[in-house]
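Before drawing any conclusions, I looked closely at one protein, both as residues and as discrete backbone shape codes, quoted below without any editing:
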Amino acid sequence: MSMTVVPLKDDDDFKKHNMKAVETASEELRLFVGDVEAIDAQVSELSRDRQDLFTVAKSKGYDVKALRRLIAERKRDAAELEEERLAVEQYRALLL
């Protein structure tokens, strides 16, 4: 079974259409990349702000490691945390 290749149109209207499609795709790509770069800049700025908050907390005598753990725990499901806490207690008891 052989496959026949259909030749592309070779007229000015077809070429103009293809050029317009390429220009549109290029502009969309530029916009997507620009938006992602803007978000990356915002994420970097927020990350610096977050670090500054931990620096202030540390300067006021708070244990930053404990704060980070507390924040991470607050993001998790309460039942999942309790299950993990019980497992850790069981393991600790076995090691004593």
User: Anything to note?
Assistant: Residues 12-61 form one domain. Residues 18 and 87 are 63 Å apart (CA to CA). The helical segments are 12-59, 64-75, 78-95.
